[in-house]
């Protein structure tokens, strides 16, 4: 960025400062640590100067927002045009109760919906399945059939909202249900806006709600890409996720490297399935974590954007700029929240949310203070939403785009994370791609090594967690936490019985048979799932057909 | 011992308790084995060895499922390495055998090597005998797969499966010479991967070079995780069992292994006697000081000790 | 020579978050214990079958999905049915304080909530397993 003469001047001046000023101080009072490290463990220097960014070309590497390589942001006007979507992940117990929470959030200013499903739903089991015992409605809403979906969105006009659904293995089914609900409201599929997470690779790596083995799962994902590109063109068909990889204990560079490696695998699968890059790539979206180290996180987001843009252009030869744009949703880091002194979590979340905004996120979920203990109460979730609103309205950080650009520190770190992430991607390429790397356990081991290191640092007090290993107090148990009544399981079971007796069981049977045949062949399964869903076949029934044909993923890897 | 009675009746808990007792205390082990000896000898022991990442556990899962479908009872001993630093271990082979955990005809036991370097644990043999006495028709032993994993498996298994995977390193070099002699069946797992045919060819070439083979081991290609090739593998296992029985090799091998075991047990006791002499009053230290200062030579010291030992015994 | 402690680390139910279970498995190994890790999606029946065949001293369950009030006591119940109630049963994860007394009454010896160190867990195990 600077010419040699200027750089030389700066270097000389630094050396002068070190000799005349710094060293004197160091002799008298050394710094508090030998080495300073970011939250992810990367070395952080005392000072960053133009020397550290001398190699970075502004136009080529940093550029302008809304233009390749998108380092400074996806949209040319970013938050000056429109704030990020305030999208609070919510759902618990029954569709009725979740519907209430969604309406509350919208009334309080949230600008997008985000559905949390319970574990049986995420794993394709109905609420009356033996493995669902004790789990119904606990971590999200229980959806057993289209009936529940209708209740979930009752009074919510699907042409007016955008809905993100955190659903992976059975994503096709829930998407079909959403489309069916839209139809009943008179909203055609081409008007629907939203996202399905639909990222199976990270399930194998870090989240665990897989159903089928890799190959059929990739087929389902590419079927969805294809179907939506024609029928639901405004829908983001995947949210390639780093959030959970980070939650499982990875570093920032690993979060970017492993997520983008997964992204590469999806793009390759779609191309192999005969789809044109510029048709599906614009609808790929990402999902990242926002962790404690503010500057590292901002650098991470910028690195991710630049790296993905380069990958899409150079590796996949995308022609449209829209294909190269890494749009992402962010969630503040759940794993950093403490059960001790839960109000401290409000501050943690505020810092993490700020990092996400400074990093240019398109959409943001802020965690609630009580989430190390339970799902959030209405009060807690309101504070979390207000956190975003205060950042947007009161802090002024949205007045200019990518405000930290040009910081020697942030630009140096952006480059560093980009390079490190690329190293991981190359390693995964050498192993044969993300799916293969997962079979070999490479990604999981890297993550669990990082997680172990992190925990040992906490226990040795190399890493401080306020309220947990420092500044502890004797506390009362928190009161008024959200509890999901176990009766929800019984209620859902009754609902399933009612649905099954009210529907046309012959039609259901023939739709499921047609689905089975489609799964066994090579047709796109979406229309068949849609047909079954409309006849009120349950989620469990549909997934069982797929389990029968595709088999189930077998856990293989250890640490 | 009441655990023994229960074990013989099929109680899994009793069986597990006996394995633990034998693992933790050599005197207990002796008592147990003395009592159950007459009940052993029926199980056919299959050893599965091969490098880490070869898919041994997944293969075990599929082989056992097949045997169990035939109505057989199968015991599995899965060995994983013990950390030399802490003495602890993570035993994770069960993860790949989820369905078998609840099968009444299956018993799965995980063991750490506990410092032993031969690929198994010192106590694997005793665990095997207990499972044998408990009436399991087949017992599968899975080695750790690193270092000298093959050393011990030969001493206890009737049929040894050598599992290899294409692309795990440079195939020719990684085929250690000794393996050719001990593998009864060579299994190429993950054979849907590129290079599987090449690996099979290389194994066959190495077998061509091996002399003195009464029976040429078959090379079987499988894809364990997809359950492909398993039927063929089971056929080869049974064919090997038949060969062992018809040729008298089974009796020969087992007797040979028993010989080794007896000698080992004798050596253990003799070693105790030697130590009781050398360690008494630090006698060995004293003698060695004399050797170091050239007062005596090393053979003189040996003879002195031998004389004292013989006198005592 | 003291006996090596054997621990079953299990993930009951549908919860797929295994960061904690894996960290604990490693820490216990580094403390000299033999850890049998079951992997995800264990039913209480599978956990108990493994506990018995492996003759473990401890069953440790990690659960973050809120299903602990059903699953943890069920494991204790099944262990008792099979005559294995001398095994120390402990649990951890996202478990509200209010649920702990009920779980202890059901036979879970201790619940380790977020923020517990692995050192504390190791000490507890060493001090509470049944001597044999």
CATH level-four homologous superfamily name of one domain in chain A? Methylmalonyl-CoA mutase
Backbone structural class of chain A = alpha/beta
* Element-level helix/strand string of chain C: EHEHEHEHEH
Mean pLDDT of chain C: 95
Output mean pLDDT of chain A: 96
- Strand order of the biggest β-sheet of chain A: 5-4-3-2-1-9-8-7-6
Q: Specify the CATH class of one domain in chain A.
A: Alpha Beta
Instruction: Detail the poorly predicted runs of chain C.
Output: none
Helix fraction of chain A? 40-55%
As an assembly, this protein is heterotrimer
Question: In one word, what is the shape of chain A?
Answer: globular
Total number of β-strand segments of chain A? 9
Please, how many helices of chain C?
5
Tally of contiguous helical segments of chain A: 22
Instruction: Assign the CATH superfamily of chain C.
Output: Cobalamin-binding domain
EC number (chain A): 5.4.99.2
GO molecular function (chain A): cobalamin binding; methylmalonyl-CoA mutase activity
Keywords (chain A): Isomerase
Enzyme class (chain A): isomerase
Can you offer a commentary on this structure?
The complex is a heterotrimer of chains A (559), B (313) and C (132). Chain A has 559 residues and is of the alpha/beta class. Chain A contains 22 helices and nine strands. Chain A has a domain at 76-459: Methylmalonyl-CoA mutase (TIM Barrel). Chain A has helices at 4-28, 58-62, 78-81, 95-107, 119-122, 146-152, 171-184, 200-207, 214-231, 243-247, 252-272, 277-280, 294-315, 344-358, 378-394, 408-431, 434-440, 442-459, 487-502, 505-520, 526-534, 539-550; strands at residues 85-90, 112-116, 162-166, 193-196, 235-236, 238-241, 284-290, 328-332, 363-365. The model of chain A has no long low-confidence stretch (mean pLDDT 96). Chain B is an alpha/beta fold and 313 residues long. Chain B folds into two domains: 38-247, P-loop containing nucleotide triphosphate hydrolases (Rossmann fold), CATH 3.40.50; 262-312, no CATH class. Chain B is globular. The mean pLDDT of chain B is 90. Chain C has five helices and five strands, in the order βαβαβαβαβα. In chain C, 64% of the residues are buried. The mean pLDDT of chain C is 95. By secondary structure, chain C is an alpha/beta fold. Chain C is globular and about 35 Å long. In chain C, strands 2-1-3-4-5 form a five-stranded parallel sheet, sandwiched between helices. In chain C, α4 (100-105) links the parallel β4 (88-93) and β5 (110-112). β3 of chain B pairs parallel with β2 (34-37) of chain C. Chain B: It comes from bioreactor metagenome. Chain B: InterPro entries: AAA+_ATPase, GTPase/Isobutyryl-CoA_mutase, GTPase_ArgK, P-loop_NTPase. Chain B: Keywords: Chaperone, GTP-binding, Hydrolase, Nucleotide-binding.
